[in-house]
Design a protein that fits this description.
Length: about 425
């Protein structure tokens, strides 16, 4: 019987409604089934509470069975109610959505009008203030910036080379002391204890001199030293490690003395080379940079005063500024903090009275080399860096950053246009469905 009732219900429903409403009918049946499930859950909860109070109540199947047997009239009423509700919703959307779109358009027009007003006010303010500066000021400012950058680089190079020279000066004094003590060890007969003392002092000063030379190399790491190269310092270190063996025989003592003396002469030549580079290259370039910078700064100040006078007008009085009241924009004595942190040279004193570097017993100073035999100075690029290359590298990096920003902007614009296209496509499909 249940199956016959189901078939007759389906048949009667299919005869009553046309085919184009089958989709709506299926949706209505789904809603009815959902409502029936909700009613069944509520009745089940009520039944459970009643069972707790009255255990001998009727079985739930008899109550649920009633709700499964809905008549055709009840199904028709519920479907009609659903169709009327859906129709009312569509009518409301058809009336109100155009109003919402119109409101958005009005809001957009208001925003555009406000934007135009603000742009006009901005242009009016710019015209009222006018353009500050001139082509001559821009040209002079660029020239002054370039000269200041060059002067700063030369000042930094001078500071580094002066500190490197200080380290080499101490190394030369220590090598002279070591050579003098080593010569004294072989010339004067003395006890074994004094010989070991002299050898120890010689070794300590040789090690300190080697450390000061290597510190100067690290301080000027981009400069290749023509004297006292790394191989020579390695030879000196090996000689220091064998100094107590070399003091035992005259032959080994003489060989070690030759090694120490050669290192002393080459260190003195390196110090002479430092003096030549500082006095003949760095100092001259710094004086030239200062001589070129002064007039350019004066011209720039004069041009800026003229522009300021024009802005103030005739009623503002005359501007007079003395160049003496203006401080230099770059002071050679005020350097970067990291440049001040230079390592102090190693000083090693002797254990006996008067055995200190620079005191009695030092070897005579080597004869200075003629200027034509002295090694050539380093190039301008090694001394001060390639300014043009650094500037080009900075421009390339800025261009790459701008290119990346433009690419990201284009990608975001493309994504936005794609989202707008999808939104328009959905809106068209909704309009067709209505």
């Amino acid at each position: 019987m249940g199956s016959s009732v189901s078939k007759s219900s389906k048949k009667g429903t299919s005869n009553q409604y046309p085919k184009q409403q089958m989709k709506v009918l299926a949706m209505g049946q789904h809603i009815v089934s959902v409502q029936l499930q909700q009613q069944q859950q509520q009745q089940q909860q009520q039944h459970n509470s009643a069972m707790q109070q009255q255990p001998a109540s009727a079985p739930p199947q008899a109550q649920d069975k009633k709700h499964h047997q809905l008549s055709d009239g009840e199904i028709k009423k519920r479907l009609d109610r659903y169709i009327e509700t859906d129709k009312a919703i569509r009518e409301w959307e058809g009336k109100n959505l155009p109003k919402a779109v119109q409101a958005k358009r009005a809001q957009l027009a208001d925003i555009n009008e406000t934007l135009k007003t603000l742009e006009q006010q901005y242009r009016a303010a710019c015209e009222k203030v006018g353009h500050y500066g001139s082509d001559l000021e821009n040209q002079l400012e660029e020239e002054v910036d370039n000269l200041l950058d060059r002067k700063e680089r030369i000042g930094v190079a001078k500071y580094k080379w002066a500190n490197g020279r200080l380290l080499l000066q101490h190394a030369c004094n220590q090598l002279a002391f070591a050579v003098g003590r080593w010569q004294t060890l072989a010339q004067v007969p003395m006890s074994i204890q004094i010989k070991y003392q002299l050898a120890t002092e010689t070794r300590n000063n040789l090690i300190a001199a080697s450390q000061n030379i290597m510190s100067a190399k690290r301080y000027l790491n981009n400069i290749k030293f023509p004297y006292c190269e790394t191989e020579e310092m390695a030879t000196l270190d090996r000689a220091c490690s064998n100094i107590y063996i070399d003091m035992q025989s005259p032959e080994r003592h003489q060989h070690a003395l030759q090694c120490y003396s050669v290192t002393h002469r080459r260190c003195a030549a390196l110090l002479q080379w430092f003096d030549s580079v500082i006095n003949n290259t760095i100092e001259k370039d710094l004086a030239k940079a200062k001589a070129e910078l002064g007039p350019k700064q004066a011209q720039l100040r004069k041009e800026r005063l003229r522009l300021m006078q024009e802005k103030i007008g005739a009623g503002g009085g005359q501007l007079n500024i003395n160049d003496k009241d203006l401080s230099d924009e770059f002071d050679d004595d005020m350097l970067e903090p990291e440049l001040v942190a230079v390592s102090e040279p190693d000083k090693v004193e002797g254990e006996s009275q008067g055995l200190t570097p620079g005191g009695d017993g030092n070897a005579p100073a080597p004869t200075p080399l003629p200027l034509n035999e002295l090694a050539p100075p380093p190039s301008q690029e090694d001394l001060f860096g390639n300014i043009e290359q650094l500037r080009k590298q900075h421009e390339q990096e800025m261009a790459q950053i701008e290119k990346t920003q433009e690419t990201n902007k284009a990608r975001m614009e493309q994504g936005l246009q794609e989202k707008l296209r999808q939104r328009r496509s959905r809106r068209k499909r909704m309009e067709v469905a209505l």
